[in-house]
């Protein structure tokens, strides 16, 4: 399967919708082990991206991802803005000039995005951050593509790895970001950033196309 500019635009719009519908949940998680702004921060950023997308005449996937990253950097703030912003910008740089991409291109773009987060966050796995979902997701996607899986199959496996990584943050003690100030009291709570990463991954898989009426409300806590 080939991925076009339209697919990428739909992914970003779906991500924005999921972040909007789950903003309260993300902020609630950030209330417990942070400063209660994660949902609002990301919702502001992705809403700004969607506004720009409406007038953005581009047939270049790299340019769309770069615009997304720049806008997130400028509007989200906190820790998550620079991290997601860097990830989207790195992926955009790799895919500059491309109007059609395949599974291998996506795997490569995800890998440079992951590297961007690691560098920018000076973070490693097990520190109870978004990386704990993103890293296993990227690795699972890459391995599936290299083993000949279809894009859909690779994406579904990756999403399962992201979800597992998300849940795995619950028993972890945070050693990065605001939650680290809580020390052992950060144990027992799911990381907010890992949760937003899960929704963005869900948007990538396209699970939320044409949800039944009322579904977004029902997903709210
Ligand atoms: P802030 O903590 O500045 O209020 P947000 O609430 O928007 O920023 O985002 C918090 C999330 O950012 C955390 O849940 C965690 O997943 C992620 N995070 C924080 N610091 C780092 C880091 N150094 N590396 C990777 N992710 C981080
Ligand atoms: Mg916060």
Write out the distinct hetero groups bound to the structure: adenosine-5'-diphosphate, magnesium ion
CATH structural architecture: Alpha Horseshoe
Estimate the mean pLDDT confidence: 93
Largest sheet: 2 strands, antiparallel
Please give the structural blueprint.
Layout: E1 3-4, H1 5-21, H2 23-33, H3 38-55, H4 61-75, H5 80-94, E2 100-101, H6 103-121, H7 131-146, H8 151-168, H9 192-205, H10 215-219
Antiparallel strand pairs: 1-2
This protein binds adenosine-5'-diphosphate and magnesium ion (MG).
Q: Any key phrases for this structure?
A:
mainly alpha, binds adenosine-5'-diphosphate, 10 helices, Serine Threonine Protein Phosphatase 5, Tetratricopeptide repeat, 221 residues, binds magnesium ion, disordered C terminus, single chain, two-stranded antiparallel sheet
Give a written overview of the molecule.
The chain has one domain (3-204): Alpha Horseshoe (Serine Threonine Protein Phosphatase 5, Tetratricopeptide repeat). It is mainly α and 221 residues long. Helix 1 (5-21) runs antiparallel to helix 9 (192-205). The chain has 10 helices and 2 strands. Strands 1-2 form a two-stranded antiparallel ribbon. The longest helix has 19 residues, at 103-121. The chain binds adenosine-5'-diphosphate and magnesium ion. The site of adenosine-5'-diphosphate has 24 residues, from helix 3, helix 5, helix 6 and helix 9.
